[in-house]
Amino acid sequence: MKSLWTRTVVAMGALLLAVSPLYAQAEDVTLLNVSYDPTRELYQEFNTAFAKYWQKEKGQTVVVKQSHGGSGKQARAVIDGLDADVVTLALAYDIDAISEKARLIPRNWQSRLPHNSAPYTSTIVFLVRKGNPKAIHDWDDLVKPGVAIIPANPKTSGAARWAYLSAWGYALKKYGNEEAKAKDFIGKFYANVPVFDTGARGATTTFVERGIGDVLVGWENEAYLALKELGAGKVEIVTPSISILAEPTVTLVDKVVKRRGTEAVAQAYLQYLYSDEGQEIAAKHFYRPRAETVAVKYAGQFAKVNLFTIDDVFGGWQKAQQTHFADGGVFDEIYKPK
Amino acid sequence: MNLSLKQPSVLPGFGLTLGFTLFYFSLIVLIPLSGLFVKTSSLSWEQFWNIVTTPRAIASYQLTFGASLVGAFINGIFGSIIAWVLVRYHFPGRSVVDALVDLPFALPTAVAGITLTSIYASNGWIGRYLEPLGIKVAFTPLGVLVALTFIGLPFVVRTVQPVLQDLDREVEEAATTLGANRWQTFWAVIVPELWPALLTGIAMAFARAVGEYGSVIFIAGNMPLKSEITPLLIMTKLEQYDYAGATSLGVVMLVTSFVVALMINLLQWWSSARHMNQ
């Protein structure tokens, strides 16, 4: 019996150690940035730059920890109690959810930082096989019979939701705002989908590594990254005539920074994203910068494309989510058994 | 039958261990599971019913439970053969094969999923030879079955193996001297001994397969109504912050799994009771 007790105590001790948050040493300050999947490389570089800046400015060592995953999943982790000082997610809707469900952030969070709290933007483009064998140039070409499209599942992936909305926006424009025709277009679009990955990275892997599908529809920055990693010989980027302005948004998690006493440094961290250096780093990782000067410098890197915003076409994320992605919404209707 | 709580035993400590068991069981199993029901109870019965009977949900139950059951039975047959070979025959590299059996169990499920997908995709090692025959494995329900069979294998082998080891060879020899042919020896002597362990192994493989998420997600293709498993639907609901909807599907899985596990246990109990009476 004694050995059982000893073992139990030891096991519990080990468990406590494992779950107790690891606090950093005195003076040093740590931040946790909870972000989505494709920003991993961006924030690795940005965190180093910010640490250097903060050291010079305040003489304090700051260690920024990163957490990455699907945007919705990350938001849920914060709602469920992950102590994020800042969140940098794929869509405003996910941050809205944190504000609404956990009340960690005030409702007006999006107006606290410039440009809708989106320091960098991206859009949805196509990645096709070398030589573009199916001659894909615009959204129209995707719904032709025999074209296999690889998007991710809009229910689980932020990028996939932006892609869906892009296609819808294109169809609305093409058919003079006729909802029924747009619905028909979206139906044809998803009829050409052979595989649904749960996240943007998974879809990229399916397309590139498994060789499935003719066109990958996803983040512009992911497409450039894939191109860079693979070399130009295997895939090509096609920019459609019109696409959505994807605004990945960032904010402080007020209740967490107040409790942890990290408000000033977290605030500076987000503001530094808007600085010239922050914008340069974003551009280097193929996010479209907001700052005029940096945008001009990197203009050659990004194809010209007509961008529309979610507010213009869909009246904001809450409405788009309700109409299209909620259970029983337009997206679900595509997959009704016939 | 003695129904009193305390049963005489040579060893002391019954009260303490029973107390500990109940405490531990509540902490680890009952409290989290009751949380599932509490979350669901925020819905009315009608809402609950609507969520769990949508065509997509029903298609996903069919795939999840169907593929798990088929996978478990495939493992029942081939797992027993592997256990038989490992116990009865001595060949070079036996201990290596023995160790390999545990691999699907030890491997992180995501790794298993990615590996299986790259092998069975149309440009993979095996997939490229199946494709011309018109057989598609990756991104179809067949892929789900492959993944669920893969992860369930160790359960059958590991439950059947010790029973085979304990089986007295003399009994088989006796059967032969009494005039039984090999087939009769197998069916009438060996199989009844193996039944309970085999059923346990199948039940465990089934239970593991029902709850499997990581490996299936990569190979399934995840198309609604076709290759979407219930755990993915649950994840989908969670991504939309629909906790009640997610737990509703969770409850359905829990109850179904419990009923299946109970049925297999009863079957096992019945078969061993019959065996005892013979």
Which SSEs are present, and which pair or pack?
The complex is a heterodimer of chains A (338) and B (278).
Chain A (H helix, E strand, L loop, with lengths): L1 H18 L9 E7 L4 H19 L3 E6 L3 H9 L6 E4 L2 H11 L17 E2 L2 E6 L9 H4 L6 E2 L7 H17 L4 H13 L8 H9 L6 E5 H11 L4 E4 L3 E3 L4 E4 L1 H7 L2 H10 L3 H9 L3 E2 L2 H6 L8 E3 L1 H5 L2 H9 L4 H5 L4
Parallel strand pairs in A: 1-2, 1-3, 6-7, 9-12
Antiparallel strand pairs in A: 3-10, 4-11, 5-7, 5-8
Helix pairs in contact in A: 2-12, 3-4, 6-7
Chain B lengths: L13 H27 L4 H8 L2 H34 L5 H7 L2 H4 L2 H12 L6 H4 L10 H26 L2 H9 L4 H30 L2 H7 L9 H10 L3 H35 L1
Helix pairs in contact in B: 1-13, 3-8, 3-10, 6-8, 6-11, 8-10, 8-11, 9-10, 10-13, 12-13
Descriptive tags:
heterodimer; A: 338 residues; alpha/beta; 4-stranded mixed beta sheet; 16 helices; globular; B: 278 residues; mainly alpha; 13 helices
Count of runs of 4 or more consecutive helical residues of chain A = 16
Question: Would you identify the regions of chain A where 5 or more consecutive residues have pLDDT less than 50?
Answer: 21-26
Assembly type = heterodimer
Q: Over the alpha carbons, how many angstroms does the gyration radius of chain B reach? A: 22 Å
Coarse structural class of chain B: mainly alpha
Q: Provide the low-confidence segments of chain B as ranges.
A: none
Radius of gyration of chain A: 22 Å
Mean pLDDT of chain B: 88
Order of helices and strands of chain A: HEHEHEHEEHEHHHEHEEEHHHEHEHHH
Shape of chain B: globular
Shape of chain A: globular
Q: How far is it from the N-terminal to the C-terminal residue of chain A, by CA?
A: 63 Å
Number of helices of chain B: 13
Could you describe the largest sheet of chain A, including whether it forms a barrel? 4 strands, mixed
Percent range of helical residues of chain B: over 70%
Q: What spatial order of strands do you see in the largest sheet of chain A?
A: 2-1-3-10
